[in-house]
Design a protein that fits this description.
Four copies of one chain form a homotetramer.
Chain A (H helix, E strand, L loop, with lengths): L1 E6 L4 H11 L4 E7 L8 H4 L11 E2 L11 E4 L6 H10 L3 E4 L9 H8 L6 H6 L1 E2 L2 H10 L2 E3 L3 H16 L7 E7 L14 H4 L4 E2 L7 H13 L5 E7 L6 E8 L6 H8 L6 E3 L17 E6 L6 E8 L3 H15 L16
Parallel strand pairs in A: 1-2, 1-4, 2-3, 4-5, 5-7, 6-7, 8-10, 12-13
Antiparallel strand pairs in A: 8-11, 9-10, 11-14, 13-14
Helix pairs in contact in A: 1-11, 6-11, 7-9
Catalytic activity (chains A, B, C, D): N-acetyl-L-glutamate 5-semialdehyde + phosphate + NADP(+) = N-acetyl-L-glutamyl 5-phosphate + NADPH + H(+)
InterPro entries (chains A, B, C, D): AGPR, AGPR_AS, AGPR_dimerisation_dom, AGPR_type-1, NAD(P)-bd_dom_sf, Semialdehyde_DH_NAD-bd
Pathway (chains A, B, C, D): Amino-acid biosynthesis; L-arginine biosynthesis; N(2)-acetyl-L-ornithine from L-glutamate: step 3/4
Chain lengths: 342, 342, 342, 342
């Protein structure tokens, strides 16, 4: 049994990690920490876990995180870079679900996240945890930077096109829509029901933190810097990301086959038949990314549709997938729940 | 492995049965039938099952339902009473998720359901499939009448009070709220998103088909006819029932303990600590009923709050629970998924 | 033109007052204040008012509230009792949309609201602003306590029964459901979209602040103290209250006619035909209360259904109605917008 | 008073027309017809209109449509082309809210709508009712083809760019999201609450009927054929369209000023300040289109955000605006209601 700890378990990625790990056959949850809620039972905050998770939130300082094989950081940006190094130095492996180790260019990271990086030395050795791209490196990683939710949906959607170099890489467009849980369990006016329900809007069009992450990922895949317009939207859905991706075709190819072949052995990427339209609920509560490819009117614009559950393949589920790879477990262990529909 | 068939798999209880059975370790799904969609692959209708359910809908007449150990009817009212008898006669056990066998008084059934009963002789031998009341009889049952969604939430909520005879049984009140999936996957104006979203209403106040079912169940438990006012409401939630139950106290007692003791060994009924308020999402996609007991202002009116997922404990999950009991499987086999929250 | 000011205009009742007053033919909005947002233009916070409301939030201290004929307090509980007296002393009339002047028994108020009352002397002279009960007194009132949202729906629903003394007044039950905007525009976890959407729950069953207000109102109408069980619920709707009211009949009567006669001349109470079920959207964004009366199965339990928009008849609309009465305007002036459906 | 009739008043555009016309100072509603619901009172179907609309649905054949000054067709595609000609011949002016007269190229129309056109001769003389483009022609029109909802949002969003010829007209992209009421009040599984709520998907990517309409409109404005990729999505919102528009800049310009100048005198188009993100609720229930212009990262891709209420500026409101223009009324008469927020 892999002994795991969770730092910062009171947010949505925290409770989702608990949901998945509590059902995982190869894991023992040793501790879950929360500075603010130490002493509170997990189930009094999340009654959905009653009878299945018998833990109290512990103060991080008092907890036995160092005795874990693996610690997940489900904390706000800027926490893991402070606290992970001493665990790493003690031989504990770490998966950070926040952004601290995602951007290799530390100056770029500092610009977008508005703070100085506390441990630039660890950034270089962190592995970007997108298994469909980095599976081999994840296996040996001591520190995994779990991808953001938008970056997961967008990169998996563009991946085969960009790898094959079949489209204009200077003008990629990602029109992405996220459910409100992507904003976390923070008390903010913009995430209130009465603000977000029965409403839809774009946000962050001038610049969103996931832009440099996606650009970095696609550029690595392409082997050359890509140009990307990224427009995120907030939709009145609890869980789910729908990315609609546009690119200009440079070369003819059998795009449907390209995608099917690329993802043939990926357990968590499902390429739909031609002419399909995946809906976000078809992956609700599951670790699957579903993708459909279109070429409307036979023109030169490709349209790729990519959906994930932002809390699963976009966060906690992908973290468990990374854990499975890191510890030699079956990659789908604990991640085989079917989507909940309707 | 129990070999099961599903008649009528294109509705919400059908797809929910598939979700649960596809993850059940002791079951083989032999066939799923649909008159209208014979030849269609299940996954083209429900992409959430892609890669996990590899079946086509079959015409009921052409299917091998008779070779099953158990057949679930997830059909509209009035179908099972036509088709189940020949399967029963062939030795196949049957669980009907519709209402055909729920009401013992056939004349009463015919009044509320507006049709003649096709096999009154089977009504008497059917077992009402509420395990918390009828577990022993279910074990041997050839035909189980799976309870309605409202009746499950209301009966489990009132059960300890009514068994103990501590309240005025002539004036029970059940104010119940249901998610829209309770109306099924039928194309009806009143179930449209633009009608039901951002809206709330009562319906069927003069009389709802679940009234006689609840009254029958509670009267059996009480050993005397009970009086019940039942007001159902439609709420803009996909899954979930919230029953708020009112009764007049006749005798002092430790009500919290009464409930805790009654349900101490029930795997799917969770009595919350005093002063709690269960929310419907705390049981979303799970087979659990959560209950809280209140006595506001110390007065003589008891308030019981009871929540279930109408598609799970209120339909498909309870059917699987009944199957587990009937076939000597572990009662919680295949039903151990945690609720999905948020 | 009546010159009005609004104190505390950044919440939902504030913006709703602006929506209604900006379309009112007999009103000039002189000032709107907000301590925290002084200097901000109203439209930058509420773009729905662009081109129609050309005001900035002003600091309350710097504003010319004293030059108004009427000041609305759309502030949290406890503010109006501090700031209204000096305006009242200066001859400005006041409508408080919060709870400061609703409960005549100051000790009772202090118990439920958890603070000392700052001006008990004004409590006695305040008029409870439910026009259907207090129209004459409102006309001359210097200080109107605008009723709470639940109290409006529940009192209007019970009023004819209680006035006529036809039901058991010791055991009234109000099962009430509110949209999330009733909790205001405060950043609180429990009001987040991801908490409240696709979910339903009761809250405050042991005791809610609107209980004493409703009990006081119904007791005055009855001329005797009433017993009430009040269970509020949170539903995933932006605007709307649905009250389902239960009472035991003591005497036979033509209840439908009783209601129709009582409300025959009320412009904002609509008694539906027998057997109706009002939905909350049928009053969305309008100042109407719709009511239906049922006697299920011909038994001795009356069921009354009462719906309002909590921000209109339950707050800002009723305040404008009170203003109209106070200043001799047409009672329906500025309140004649049709509900928005769907 | 303009005497108007409505053909087909039982859908969402029909009831929205009634809401607007019932509050319009210069209009008398003479008749509303419905083949299927003749004899039913309008208010029994739409209780939101109780006390304000005192009409019964009439059989179209028995009605006095010919005595009207203007008849609105709020019917499915294919009805107006059958029934409008005889009214037009009788001197009645007509606004068709469906698609029958929107596409000038009859063969193209027949391809996309899958039926033969019943009166191609009227297509040529119909005026496309987008006032911001065709105001002068609308004034004299006998037959107005009211634009589709997506086409309104997309054309108003692209209009200044396309008029000025500043972007690559061969590769426009419109990523558009619609609320579910856009699908009408038809009983269809895909529009059910349990299908559309908490869900998001693209649809019609290979080709949607609004594509040729938008392409025709933009091509006329450009004076040259444009190339457009149009991807519609269904979002869990009742009312609202959000169009996110992408185009490649060919020439530098002050885009913000371009938009502000173009729409300076338009009463129903609101250009937001730079860096804004309009949300759909900011136009809920109002006839306004709000637009924001972005140029992310200073690159060569323009992003325009355009929102409308699909039932108002995208249907019934625009029809009333067209009526106002046709009959010399004030263009904003009856359309001055403020958006409902929250």
């Amino acid at each position: 049994m892999v002994k795991v700890g969770i730092v910062g378990g009171t947010g949505y990625t925290g409770v989702e990690l608990l949901r998945l790990l509590a059902q995982h056959p190869g894991v023992e949850i040793v501790t879950i920490t929360s500075r603010g809620d130490a002493g509170t039972s997990v189930c009094s905050m999340f009654p959905s876990l009653r009878g299945r998770v018998d833990l109290e939130f512990e103060d991080p300082l008092a907890s036995n995180l160092r005795s874990c094989d693996l610690v997940f950081f489900a904390t706000p940006n800027g926490v893991a870079m402070q606290q992970a190094p001493e665990l790493l130095d003690a031989g504990v492996r770490v998966i950070d679900l926040a952004a601290d180790f995602r951007i290799t260019d530390v100056a770029e990271w500092e610009k977008w996240y508005g703070m100085l990086h506390a441990c630039p030395e660890w950034v270089a050795s962190a592995v970007y945890g997108l298994p469909e791209v980095n599976r081999v490196a994840i296996r040996e990683a001591r520190l995994v930077a779990n991808p953001g939710c938008y970056p997961t949906a967008v990169q998996l959607g563009f991946l085969p096109l960009v790898e094959a170099g079949l489209v204009d890489l200077d003008h990629l467009i990602a029109d992405a829509k996220s459910g409100v849980s992507g904003a976390g369990r923070k008390a903010e006016v913009s995430s209130l029901f009465s603000e977000a329900a029965d409403n839809f809007k774009a946000y962050g069009v001038p610049g969103h933190r996931h832009l440099p992450e996606i650009r970095q990922g696609l550029s690595r895949i392409a082997g050359v810097g890509v140009g990307l317009t990224f427009v995120p939207h907030l939709m009145p859905v609890i869980r789910g990301i729908h990315a609609t991706l546009y690119s200009r075709i440079k070369e003819e190819a059998d795009y449907q086959s390209l995608y099917e072949l690329r993802y043939a052995n990926e357990p968590f990427v499902d390429v739909l038949p031609a002419m399909s339209h995946p809906d976000t609920r078809s992956v609700r509560a599951a670790n699957t990314c579903r993708i459909a490819i279109h070429r409307p009117q036979g023109g030169d614009t490709m349209v790729v549709l990519s959906v994930i559950d932002n809390l699963v393949k976009g966060a906690a589920g992908q973290a468990v997938q990374n854990m499975n790879i890191m510890f030699g477990l079956g990659e789908t262990d604990g991640l085989w729940q079917l989507p909940v529909l309707p």
